[in-house]
Specification:
alpha+beta; globular; eight-stranded antiparallel β-sheet
């Protein structure tokens, strides 16, 4: 597992989101960043945040705000994932930011997602979205 600095993690998240449609960057309680490879990502720890796609300055601002919320959450968790993806809306493309947990089992992840009112979870290994109603 390669660890990243804050700036490297933010640049990776932006580049991956703009080029491939999303990213998952983990933050550990020791302050190190990493790229999670296995498990099921469940968002909804805090309300999602948004910025217009292609606006680097706004991306940095929102990423920094999410980082502050992640550090607060790390007082209760060993690791948190900062997830991003591109979503088409009526007035253009937006980047969505979500603070997430990673669970080992799909059933538990789907249950937590349903409890939080999330639409879907993300399977890191298969790199696919799984909708909460999916069986």
């Amino acid at each position: 597992m390669k660890n990243f600095s804050f700036d490297e993690a933010m640049c990776f998240a932006y580049g991956s989101t703009m080029l491939t449609g999303g990213s998952s960057v983990g933050l550990m309680d020791n302050g190190e960043y990493y790229l999670p490879k296995y498990g099921y990502v469940v968002g909804g720890i805090v309300p999602e945040k948004f910025c217009k796609a292609g606006n680097e300055a706004n991306f940095k601002e929102v990423y920094n705000r999410l980082f502050l919320e992640a550090t607060e959450e790390l007082e209760r968790s060993l690791a948190i994932v900062m997830g991003t993806w591109v979503e088409q809306r009526e007035n253009g493309k937006y980047i969505v930011f979500d603070l997430c947990n990673v669970l080992d089992d799909m059933k538990g992840a789907l249950e937590l997602a349903a409890k939080r009112g999330e639409r879907a979870i993300y399977d890191l290994e298969e790199q696919r979205e799984i909708f909460v109603n999916y069986k």
